[in-house]
């Protein structure tokens, strides 16, 4: 009897297993250098704030002025930052055990602190959850890994992957997580703050309200 030598799952592309289109797209991502986010985005920190053992982040709004706040959950406790000035608004180095990490809550939230005390803040990070990846006026975020396990964060305006426009005009490679694990990436609900959190630091961009 003649044996069937046809592979059950034919390979696509060359040695990488990628199609020519996928290889071209990967090469475009690899070739794009990190560059500053375009106007109107501006960095809040220069370039980031160190947060050892960062587990996740979440957004809240100041109850009096509506300004974006960023809550950081780490193995060292909880912190709350003003997303415009970068000022540390509040700190809790020893939260209650059941509130210390978002995985203890069914909705992956932690109790707020400082001006948002008495509320629950949804946290996205190592335990799950998610942040907004688009804004109402057309900004978008993508996380790509052309050289896995290192992640790259791409900001775009008016187009999604595979970003037909040139790098630096329609899309921007704004962050390369080659030194720490990416925890969370996203916009605040207002669309005025962009955050990238890794296991070791927090990077923020803000734009005028």
Primary descriptors:
209 residues, mainly beta, five-stranded antiparallel beta sheet, 1 helix, disordered N terminus
Describe this structure in words.
- With 209 residues, this protein is mostly beta strands.
- Helices cover 6% and strands 38% of the residues.
- Strands 1, 2, 13, 14 and 15 form a five-stranded antiparallel beta sheet that branches. Strands 6-5-4-3-9 form a five-stranded antiparallel beta sheet, with no helix packed on it. A three-stranded antiparallel beta sheet has the order 10-11-12, covered by helices on one side.
- The longest helix has 12 residues.
- The N and C termini lie far apart (74 Å).
- The N terminus is likely disordered.
Q: Gist?
A:
The protein is built from one helix and 15 strands; from the N terminus they run αβββββββββββββββ. The protein is mainly beta and 209 residues long.
Strand-helix topology:
Layout: H1 20-31, E1 42-43, E2 49-50, E3 54-61, E4 68-74, E5 77-82, E6 88-92, E7 109-111, E8 120-122, E9 124-125, E10 139-147, E11 150-157, E12 171-177, E13 182-187, E14 193-198, E15 201-206
Antiparallel strand pairs: 1-15, 2-15, 3-4, 3-9, 4-5, 5-6, 7-8, 10-11, 11-12, 13-14, 14-15
- Strand fraction equals 35-45%
> Which oligomeric form is depicted?
single chain
H and E string? HEEEEEEEEEEEEEEE
What overall form do the CA principal axes indicate?
Answer: globular
Distance from N terminus to C terminus (CA atoms, Å) equals 74 Å
Structure annotation, total helices: 1
- Which percent range fits the helix content? under 10%
């Amino acid at each position: 009897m003649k044996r069937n030598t046809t592979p059950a799952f034919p390979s696509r592309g060359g040695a990488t297993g990628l199609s020519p289109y996928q290889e071209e797209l990967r090469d475009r991502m690899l070739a794009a250098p990190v560059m500053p986010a375009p106007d109107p985005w501006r960095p809040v920190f220069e370039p980031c704030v160190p947060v050892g053992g960062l587990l996740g982040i979440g957004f809240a709004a100041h109850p009096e002025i509506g300004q974006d706040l960023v809550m950081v959950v780490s193995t060292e406790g909880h912190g709350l930052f003003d997303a415009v000035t970068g000022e540390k608004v509040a700190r809790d180095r020893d939260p209650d055990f059941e509130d210390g990490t978002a995985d203890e809550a069914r909705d992956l939230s932690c109790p707020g602190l400082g001006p948002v005390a008495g509320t629950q803040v949804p946290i996205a990070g190592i335990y799950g959850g998610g942040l907004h990846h688009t804004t109402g006026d057309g900004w978008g975020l993508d996380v790509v890994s052309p050289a896995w396990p290192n992640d790259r964060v791409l900001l775009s305006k008016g187009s999604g992957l595979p970003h037909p426009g040139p790098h630096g005009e329609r899309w921007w490679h704004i962050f390369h997580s080659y030194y720490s694990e990416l925890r969370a990436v996203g916009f605040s609900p207002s669309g005025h703050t962009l955050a990238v959190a890794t296991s070791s630091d927090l990077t923020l961009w803000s734009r005028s309200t």
